[in-house]
């Protein structure tokens, strides 16, 4: 009888020890989970300086849960004929991009506008480069992956195309969206304008180009397309008084010749401001699909 009682006591003690060990394991589990870092919160930084000029600034929208191995960056480039405009003109893109692409970072940039003492080219192309260089150098601090998509309207589309086709030697840019961007300044639409040469002289810093350069050709993205150009999505109006449809067609042909993935859509109307709601909705759908394909979050 005593032996049975002793055996029962030993079994009970063993069971209690198992319960105690199990309890210790369960108690430790939440502590281990608590040691995991919390996902980063969304952050907005306005008017971040990237140069000494007051116009060299951008707004930065960093998404929640970003990391430096998957959070890619969309850069918005405004229009305004290279002499006017502001990043505020692109503000309507931001909420739509945040809804459709919540895991991308968004940059809405200004660049130094051209005037009688400050030429546009190549300075404005180089401003895009400065933004990309700054973001790349801060990738760990910002927790972003320095792969970029450019979305430009009008003059901003021209700047975006030219930057990718000429200046992006490291292939940091993975896609370009061109909305009514001038692409070929050798087009008769421009060269037959008696004021075109005067405008060209005001916009181009001739000292930044080799002697004898044909400036109209040198700053025409459609004439700079190569096998290393990024996938491009193009949107033009069939009655645009500022950028002829022929510019879109020339660019489309150059992309086809160089076997660059691209999309070309023509809407009824002018320079985008009179496009129908259905056309604008279609643009957003096509652009979103293009981003998902060529700037995916993996």
From TrEMBL:
Gene3D superfamilies membership: alpha/beta hydrolase
Signal sequence residues: 1-22
Molecular function per GO: hydrolase activity
InterPro entries registered for this protein in UniProt: AB_hydrolase_fold (IPR029058), BD-FAE-like_dom (IPR049492), GDXG_lipolytic_enzyme (IPR050300)
Keywords: Hydrolase, Signal
Presence of keyword Nucleotide-binding: no
UniProt xrefs under SUPFAM superfamilies: alpha/beta-Hydrolases
Limits of the BD-FAE-like domain: 59-255
Pfam family, any one: BD-FAE
Keyword Signal in annotation: yes
Top-rank lineage group of the source organism: Bacteria
Protein name: Alpha/beta hydrolase
Species whose genome carries this gene: Constantimarinum furrinae
Upper lineage: Bacteria, Pseudomonadati, Bacteroidota, Flavobacteriia, Flavobacteriales
């Amino acid at each position: 009888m005593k032996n049975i009682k002793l055996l029962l006591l030993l079994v009970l003690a063993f069971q209690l020890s198992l319960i105690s060990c199990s309890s210790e394991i369960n108690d430790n589990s939440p502590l281990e989970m608590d040691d995991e870092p919390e996902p980063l919160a969304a952050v907005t930084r306005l008017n971040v300086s990237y140069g000494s000029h007051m116009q060299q600034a951008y707004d930065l929208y960093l998404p929640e849960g970003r990391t430096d191995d998957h959070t890619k960056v969309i850069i918005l480039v405004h229009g305004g004929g290279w002499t006017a405009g502001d990043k505020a003109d692109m503000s309507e893109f931001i909420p739509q991009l945040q809804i459709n692409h919540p895991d991308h970072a968004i940059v809405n940039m200004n660049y130094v506008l051209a005037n009688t003492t400050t030429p546009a080219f190549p300075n404005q192309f180089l401003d895009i480069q400065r933004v990309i260089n700054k973001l790349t150098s801060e990738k760990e601090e910002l927790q972003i992956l320095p792969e970029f998509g450019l979305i430009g309207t009008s003059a901003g589309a021209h700047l975006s195309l030219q930057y990718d086709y000429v200046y992006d030697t490291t292939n940091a840019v993975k896609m370009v969206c061109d909305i009514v961007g001038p692409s070929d300044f050798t087009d008769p639409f421009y060269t037959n304008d008696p004021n075109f040469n005067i405008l060209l002289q005001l916009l181009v810093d001739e000292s930044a180009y080799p002697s004898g350069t044909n400036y109209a050709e040198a700053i025409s993205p459609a004439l700079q397309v190569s096998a290393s150009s990024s996938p491009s999505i193009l949107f033009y109006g069939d009655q645009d008084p500022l950028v002829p449809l022929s510019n879109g067609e020339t660019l489309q042909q150059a992309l086809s010749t160089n076997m660059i993935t691209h999309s070309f859509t023509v809407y009824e109307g002018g320079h985008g401001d009179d496009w129908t709601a259905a056309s604008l909705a279609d643009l957003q759908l096509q652009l979103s699909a293009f981003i998902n394909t060529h700037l995916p979050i993996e």
